[in-house]
Amino acid sequence: MHEADRSPYYIVMEPTDHRQGGESIIEPDRMNDTAARITESILADRRIRRLSAIYMPNRDAIVSILDKLEWLVFPGFFGPRALSEHSMREHVQRVLDEVSNSLFSQITGALRYEQGVEWGGPAFEQQCAASDRRARAIVADFIDRIPEIRRNLSLDVQAAYDGDPAAHHVDETIFCYPGVHALFVHRIAHELYRMEVPLIPRMMAEHAHSATGIDIHPGAKIGRSFFIDHGTGVVIGETTVIGDHCKVYQGVTLGAKSFPRDERGHFVRGAKRHPTLEDHVTVYAGATILGGDTIIGAGSIVNGGVFLVRSVPAGHVVRAPKIELKMRANPEMPPPNYHI
Questions:
Q1: Residue ranges per domain, the chain?
Q2: What CATH code is assigned to 233-321?
Q3: Contacts of 228 (CB under 8 A, 6+ apart)
Q4: Are the beta carbons of 149 and 73 closer than 8 angstroms?
Q5: The CATH fold of domain 53-213
Q6: What global pTM score does this model have?
Q7: With DSSP H G I counted as helix, E B as strand and the rest as coil, what are the percentages for the chain, rounded to 5?
Q8: Average pLDDT of each block of 10 consecutive residues along the chain (340 residues)?
Q9: How many CB atoms lie within 10 A of CB 289?
């Protein structure tokens, strides 16, 4: 049947499987040989396998924690809708209990994972007790930071509304703007990153990256009233510093110019590799700014498509050379009376 002859409801039927229950598609000898070779490969390569992964953080649990924190940051927008001033305290208490318990479980597991705690090892009990104490302290400090996180996100929401004439209400920016969601996750992940929680902040950041197309390393320091417009393709590296009242558009990269190495040729981790934007800086779509020693001065504007690897004094506009445009008549132009 040709494509043009098909009904819009045409269904392709899968062939019927007449195998008996439990019968393998692949011949048993071939299956056994393949299974043996895969097993040998797994056991031989420690880099990409973990035989005991009971302490590794759980991706689904991390996403669930973010969802519940979103209930606290934006109550009524996400989570239960039937809230009132009288029921708010009960709602907050219940969500805090759920978040703190889940976060404690994930953090203590991440700490044990980082330390290589082995079940039944000689120092197992002491290592577990130490990771539990540290996890409790981290969770308590993090919970204390939630009011400040909410204040910063409130300013981000206002910056999104003030910075985009297409927004009809601040509610629209909360519901619809990927930049607001990416910043919500980042401000959560950054607090845990500052507290030296292993792995979990990166898992949070990559969840936001997959959902929004905005890649913000949890180590990046972002000031108040930050707006990411559109957002797709934005990359903000680990040691980036962004001041207050800054704005970036889609496709902006705040990246590293080079990677310093030690005498053995290994990367020097923790060095300042990414640029600094001072207050009231705007970076338009597709611009690339690289280097840990690159500082964009307060009040400056970096135009779209600029590739920048040096500092800019305060109050300047950076633009790329103008592209010469040429126009010619379109030989396939439809006639004036053309109708769709």
A1: 53-213, 233-321
A2: 2.160.10.10
A3: 178, 179, 182, 183, 214, 234, 247, 248, 249
A4: yes
A5: serine acetyltransferase, domain 1 (1.10.3130)
A6: 0.86
A7: 45, 10, 45
A8: 48 57 80 92 84 80 97 93 88 96 96 82 85 97 98 98 96 97 98 97 98 98 98 97 98 90 76 96 98 98 97 97 90 78
A9: 29
